Amino acid sequence: MNEHAVNHSYGSLRRRGFLAAAGLTAAGAALAAAEGRARAASPRGQAAAAGSFRVPIEDVPHTRTWMAWPDSSSIWGRKLLSGVQADIALIARTVARYEPVIMCANSGSAAGARSMCGSSVTVLTSIPVDDCWMRDSGPVFRTDGTGGLDAVGLNFNGWGKKQTHAKDALVAQRIAAYVGVPFTSAGLVGEGGAIEQDGAGTLMATRSSLISAQRNPGMSQAQLESAMCAAYGASKVLWFDGVSGQDITDDHVDATSRFRAPGEALVQMPLATDTDVYAKDARQQYQTLSSSTTASGGRMSVSKLQGPDYDRIRSTNRDFLASYANYYVCNGAVVSGQFGDAQADAAAKATLARLYPGRVVEQLDIDRLGTGGGGIHCVTQQQPVP
User: Fold this and answer.
1) Closest CA to 56 of 172, 140, 176, 155
2) Is residue 54 part of a domain?
3) What span is annotated as the signal peptide, if there is one (predicted)?
4) Structure pTM?
């Protein structure tokens, strides 16, 4: 593999490697206060009613999608920020064709958000944000099958205090309050993109992202597993080793492996010639899933979603994330990225159409967001119908 291919290797996820050091230090005091308020408002511990409430799989009907509007040049840099905002607006407008979208925005940037998103997207200023990663900072909604809805917060701490997050640390509980549902903090620190659920008792996650001194110091895998199952209403966790220290998320599972249904998963596969750590990680995830059973004891069925050739995509940025697997399932559609490798883009669209029959597959050019190491799933959070 040549140097370009190594730099653009499958899953090169150094999200926002250009973060300004000032952005990490300036909010220290505010962050500590915010985290203290969050824990005081909703004590850390096992999620309420874990036996009856469960996080459903993503393809259930949604009431709405939650998103967040980025406006920080200290995080994104002035040159990239406008492009990322354009990508966020494109995603919001696309999802809004299928279900309501609420965009959380700071008051100073709300007018710009409304202008770029258009009238189909509701822009809300009562829930301030630091950045756009609603999958990670937002609440995880749960249903009980009898019309009940509640929300769990994963105690977001900026991916192990790597980024300013005083506002984002409070987003989950503030959205729950806006919706008017009970809110509980989970017994772990994590992000929504770090945990995939099949809605029937099985979770999957990478050890690299959650067994972390920056997120969960002193917690064993068994303790984390217990806390995850309590929060999600699950009973089994499928673990992958993952990749530590190469990106801000420490290898979120939702960039590589996803659940489509109970007992059905997919993995984005690298090219046969890719040999970097992320390619090895993807192959290991596929092998693990292929030999695993679900919480109910059934064999896992695993589909492959072929990733693009990084020598053929539009971006030449070494931190670019070209993840088809980081798609979002909304009412009637699957919204995924396309990256300029025409053959791979078409093949991915065909695969998603086959795996999600009856849904429109929308492929979007989100290269600016991909340059920041994220994708469509990273910036969306579903609120399921109770």
Assistant:
1) 140
2) no
3) 1-32
4) 0.89
* C-beta separation of 249 from 317 below 8 A: no
Task: Select which of 104, 117, 229, 378 is catalytic.
Answer: 378
- Is residue 130, in this structure, part of any structural domain at all? yes
Where residue 177 sits, what CATH number does that domain have? 3.75.10.10
Q: How does pLDDT run across 119-163, given as a tens digit for each residue?
A: 999 999 999 999 999 999 999 999 999 999 999 999 999 999 999
Query: Taking 50 as the threshold, does the pLDDT of residue 41 lie above it?
Result: no
Q: What is the pLDDT of residues 336-354, one digit of tens each?
A: 999 999 999 999 999 999 9
Residue 48 lies in a domain: no
Give a yes or no: residue 266 inside a domain: yes
Whether residue 117 lies in the annotated active site: no
The encoded tokens of residue 182 equal 């009970």
Number of domains observed in the structure of the chain: 1
Residue 191: partners with Cβ closer than 8 Å, 6 or more residues away: 133, 135, 136, 137, 154, 156, 159, 209, 249, 252
